Amino acid sequence: MTQVGHRTARALLRRLAVEQAECRVPSLTAAIVRDGATAWFGGRGRVDGAAPTPATQYRLGSITKSMVAVVVMRLRDEGVLALTDPLREHLPGAPLGHLTIAQLLSHTAGLTAEPPTDWWERTPGVPAAELLARLGPAELKHRPGRRFHYSNVGFALLGELVARLRGTTWLKAVRAEVLDPLGMHDTTARPRLPHATGYAVHPWADVVLAEPEHDADAMGPAGQLWSTPHDLARWAAFLTGETGGVLCQDTLTEMREPAGVDDGDTWTAGFGLGLQLARPGGRRLAGHTGSMPGFLATVWADPAEGAGVLFMANTTSGLSGRLATDLLDILEEYEPRLPDEWRPVAADPHLLALTGLWHWGPKPYALRLLPERGLSLEPVGGGGRASRFVPQDDGTWLGLDGYYAGETLRVAPDHLDLNTFIFTRDPYDPKAPVPGGVSAWHA
Question: Is 408 helix (H, G, I), strand (E, B) or coil?
Fold first, then answer.
């Protein structure tokens, strides 16, 4: 499926039109991505007297950060750095060099949100050397690792890290390693025609004011890039898993895992490694929002559904905050995804013999054989620790998720040894080596 049906398209366009009219947006574009391809595009308003198109450029703002983060993760995958490395290991003499790369990526370093310069989004930037010289202990607002605190400064440091390790600018590294391989050739540092002009809309009158645009220099990695709905749709597809070889699937999954939350115990917003996370209506979305003077943009991916959504607008503020998720809701209502067809698969008889009931003490667990030789161990009836496992070369099994993520499962003839926990076919089977010993069951 690549294109949505007529009724779906009409419902999506109406939601976009309501947003543009009621929020008084000079121009607004949006797109839906499904199965790696653009399934719908809509545009409202005017750019230089014409309707915006998939080729019209808007400023991305902080969506830039997610692209810089991909280059950092590529460096990690190449073994050039570790996420636990302190910044000083790769930027000798850098201020606040004790902060780790993972903390900077996840906004848990405790750094100030904005640089010690003039309002950086509205003034020409300063070179990296000057920005680094201005940073000091006063820019550390929280104990590193304590909490999520969004920091544009942190991504300026990561951009300089990329530049040093790649021997080029952060922009050229992002271009060569991310944008060009994904075919995002209309994503640029400065606007090219046709592009929308960024506007502020007067709060009490239907008039607009043009906003400034400039080179942010050292702060560029935090929000410099411009792009088009066409290119941003490719980025949405990337975030759903269509990585085009730019990043391995396991690394993208790691980027989408929550490293910090933004709103407390029942979190609905958080951050992974360079990616914002959201949980609206039971979905788990990964992507990023963007805001610069005159522009708002958002891209979200729902990997479980293979769907993505984006919008781009040339207004400083005023959108409802619900447009992207409302568009996903419409897609789900009008064209819900069909489940994949079930098909039988060939099974290793030795693995098949492991399936069925096992017991952690008295608690029954079900061991199931998954496609591609995976195992799933989960409590019968729910309410306990569940994990998936994949085989290792030494005959053991590695936990992928849940309580046992990263832990080792060993299979013996009469029991399972899961990081010292013994699972037996019968509850506390006396024939198995249960630590502490077992006696006969009695009334």
Answer: strand
CA dihedral 105, 310, 222, 189 (to 10 degrees): 130
Mean pLDDT score of the chain: 95
Q: CA-to-CA distance for 94 and 131, rounded, in angstroms?
A: 11
Output the pLDDT for position 356: 97
Q: At 138, is the secondary structure helix, strand, or coil?
A: helix
Give the rounded distance of the alpha carbon of 169 from its chain centre. 24
Per-residue pLDDT tens over the stretch 236-246: 999 999 999 99
Q: What is the pLDDT of residues 92-103, one digit of tens each?
A: 998 999 999 999
CA–CA gap between residue 162 and residue 68 (Å, rounded): 8
Residue 232: name the closest of 278, 185, 175 by CA: 185
Find where tokens 């600018």 sit. Answer: 169
Which of 195, 187, 172, 218 is closest to 60 using CA atoms?
187
157: nearest Cα among 78, 214, 220: 220
Q: Which of 279, 283, 253 is nearest to 266 (CA)?
A: 279
The DSSP line for 46-65 is -BTTB---TT-BEE-TTHHH
Question: If we measure between CA atoms, which residue out of 403, 400, 384 comes closest to residue 392?
Answer: 400
Q: How many CB atoms lie within 10 A of CB 189?
A: 16
Residue 264: per-residue pLDDT: 64
- Distance CA(108)–CA(70), nearest Å, equals 18
Q: Which two tokens mark 35?
A: 């199965």
188 pLDDT more than 90:
yes
Q: Assign a CATH topology to domain 6-334.
A: Beta-lactamase (3.40.710)
Q: Is the dihedral of CA 113, 71, 96, 129 positive or negative?
A: negative
> Please, what is the Cα angle at 172 between 171 and 178, to 5 degrees?
85
Domain range annotation of the chain: 6-334, 349-424
Distance of CA 244 to the CA centre of its chain: 16
Q: Please state, in angstroms and rounded to a whole number, the distance separating the CA atoms of residues 8 and 10.
A: 5
Predicted TM-score (pTM) of this structure: 0.92
User: Could you please report the per-residue DSSP string of 187-228?
Assistant: -BSS--SSBPPPEEEPTTSS-EEEPP----GGGGGGT--EE-
Q: For the CA atoms of 97, 99, 101, 104, what is the dihedral angle to 10 degrees?
A: -120
